[in-house]
Amino acid sequence: MIVAFQDLVGRLISKRMWLIVIGTLIYTSGYFGVAFISNFLVASIDIAIITIAEMIVTPLSQAIANSLTNQSSRGRQIGLYSMVTGIGRVSGSSLISELMNYYLYTPVILWGIMSSFGLVSAAIYLYQIKIKRIKI
Length: 136
Fold this sequence. Notes:
Number of strands: 0
Number of domains: 1
């Protein structure tokens, strides 16, 4: 799905910074939706929702990181950005694994906790766009 629609989505979202907030909220709803997966069809729909969010958020977040770098040290700073996002992915997986020890049989709480990070991220992006006026 990503390969098929990546160019189209890239053209649609270019220079529309506010879409990162929408994409993050779609991510949040997709991960919260994991709590309600009961069969293969629902799982497939949820995976599609998460993939759509990824196609919106990933290019915009990389564009933001690129716009915040200095020309002289862009490679080093983008490398640091990639390392930090990688650490975030590993930390998220570790956190959900640890929370499963406590909330395995209450998936709404488990995935609600994980989805709350998406809500916080959307709020931070919204603040940065509205108050700080970040541009790409």
